[in-house]
Amino acid sequence: MESIFRSLKKNVLFFLYIATITCPTKAENNLVDLVIYSYNRPLQVYALLESIETFVQGTGQISIICKATTTDYEAAYKIVEQNFPFAQFFMQNNSLDGKDFKPLVKQCAFDTPNDYVSFIVDDVIVTDNIDLCYCVKMLKKTKAYGFYLRNGKNTTYSFMGKRETPVPPHKIVEKDLYIWKFRDGIRHHWNYPNSNDMVVYKKSDIEDSLMSLKFNSTIYEGPWSCKTDPNKYGLFFDHSKMVNVSMNLVIDKKMFYNLDI
What CATH number corresponds to the domain at position 216? Predict the structure, then answer.
């Protein structure tokens, strides 16, 4: 009987040990929250969420902060919401001052239990498999500032800037993974640390710099990017994992109303 008890105790201790190394604690949480911005583009949000559902693993809370200026757009967003129940929709009001935008960003990006976040504009489509937990693991290993899923050795031209964007000097971390210093990037996405194009950040690294800005729309991106130390590093895959499909532009002067940065 005593030998059976010792054997049982040994097995119990073994399974408890296995549980501790396979079940991550809160401090080891590698899930990444996604915060998506959309303005009168429910069709693009549908395509984005469909691509996330198809290609992305390791997501935490998925939030869509959206603004609809007509009842038709609002109804269309409702249809998207019904088709993707894993995402939470937060509808802005239609006031010109946009005062509800920044509180929604804080709520969706920083008032959740996960430690990492990625901001995404609605014209993004994910084009390849992404394991966000792997991205977090590599951020921890390299101490990099962000993991840039838009960047790759193939991203050598800026659509918005209408000019070449050569890949800066970089080092290999492991197969298909590279690291570069921001100051070595000549322009655009290679020298633009704070971006809404699907970069994985540790929340504690960015919350103060982002929330210190006064903003009422996504145009915070430019001033925010100027707040980053150019000596920090970013990670990127050999080939980009997403693409921007800029079919229709929706930003107008109303988006800049009463802006104070």
Answer: 3.90.550.10
